[in-house]
């Protein structure tokens, strides 16, 4: 045992701050028979009455890994070390499955399941005798779903990420999981690789257990969980197969028991300051465009005010420090070896950019955990003064096409900038004609024949939370094969009411709300309409007259509004009845009023 663990264990021998929640089930002096009934089925698999009735904290292990959720599947192994940590610290572990979410194969889209997984986890945490919970996170939506549930329940909770995969390689070239899909599509469309070549190249991006090794949504959300203070310092970036990952699982198990004794709850950790820290960290790591949706959703469930203006105001003026795909070159292993998130936080602390006294899961502040842990590898994690890019955060964009959308500027390429943004008479702005697609099926059908040239804006609609239930990751669209064959060197600008994969390097304007299916103005756009995009003013406008807009809206409503695809399952229908827009985190507004139910 290390000195640190010894100290932690001895400090925990003091009695808990308040009586345990589980005692409402397992210690009912006025109805012993009921306590026995509650306890007896857990004894079925070998737990003893001594363990269950000893007053030790009961710790849930929320297991999100299964054969159906391969990115998180390795958690079925890691959970054994979590258990040993819990046991060593004097707790009783009860592992249970959560609703699985597999990002890449779930149809119509994995985001549909975030709120379902959230709802079901709230039910489990509320209904059973848990004093605290370890949230086994990883693949994109598993992390926000679990943090949303921890927010609603507000019992002590800590995240354990499954960790990124090892690096993928094609000969010497690094192949990033997820990111490689876009490259393979382009090579295929340009005729440079055949069908087998696509399959081979894409699967090289997935060399081991773990979540995507790029700075996609999985790496982002687990980094933000750590930045919020909801995971152990240094835990987010450890690759899944590394020994430190299993050691971290053990330490997380020890920590949650201490958190229960200290009664350190999500609402003590996830304060407004913690969310602001997470927004700033998101810029420095080059985080996914899904981050605002998920972080705003978590904030809504814990009752902290947060909106997209905060992302622009707080997050835009920070630099990109992490050289990871898709905004940079490297992958998860280099990032971890270079110091991971702790090294990024150390840079931001030096500049006084973070709320340094924000409390974290281990009872220490973000400063105490991370100050001075600078990187030794400046290829991978840059110094604050010599970043990959300045002002690298998201823009919050409005206009007459939508009320709210975001844009990730860290992925705007030099080639794109030269074509669209370097007119001295109109700096940081451009005007182009739009070609409009109604969902991914329409895009695939028409992209090769539609009137698309080197300056076209591709618009994707009908893909928001209502239109394509859950909001599809389809806004980033590949240019037609004929342009790629001619050597087009940049992604065409894309605008849409859906989302974009965190692993995509497209400079898209996405998550537009209100969406077409809510009869936002995207629904009245036609092929050939001119759009003006002004990144300085944060505006996107359709260049048609107010009268024309009014007339088109009347015609739209006379047709009964925008026609989205039908619901195919009961939950898709329920989801559409309850869900709010992407700009508000795509939560179920009615669910957010059950904040902190566990305190009652
Ligand atoms: Fe699961 Fe990327 S698809 S982490
Ligand atoms: Mg994704």
TrEMBL record:
The superkingdom of the source organism is Eukaryota
Q: Does the keyword Flavoprotein apply?
A: no
Q: In this protein, which residues make up the domain named Dihydroxy-acid/6-phosphogluconate dehydratase N-terminal?
A: 56-369
Q: Which GO terms describe its molecular function?
A: hydro-lyase activity; iron-sulfur cluster binding; metal ion binding
Dihydroxy-acid/6-phosphogluconate dehydratase C-terminal domain mapped to chain residues = 381-585
Q: Which InterPro entries match?
A: Dihydro-acid_dehy_C (IPR042096), DiOHA_6PGluconate_deHydtase_CS (IPR020558), ILV_EDD_C (IPR056740), ILV_EDD_N (IPR000581), IlvD/EDD_N (IPR037237), Sugar_Degrad_Dehydratases (IPR052352)
Q: Which Pfam families match?
A: ILV_EDD_C (PF24877), ILVD_EDD_N (PF00920)
The alphabetical list of record keywords is: Coiled coil, Iron, Iron-sulfur, Lyase, Metal-binding
Q: Which family does it belong to?
A: Belongs to the IlvD/Edd family.
Q: What is this protein called?
A: Dihydroxy-acid dehydratase
Species classification: Eukaryota, Fungi, Dikarya, Ascomycota, Pezizomycotina
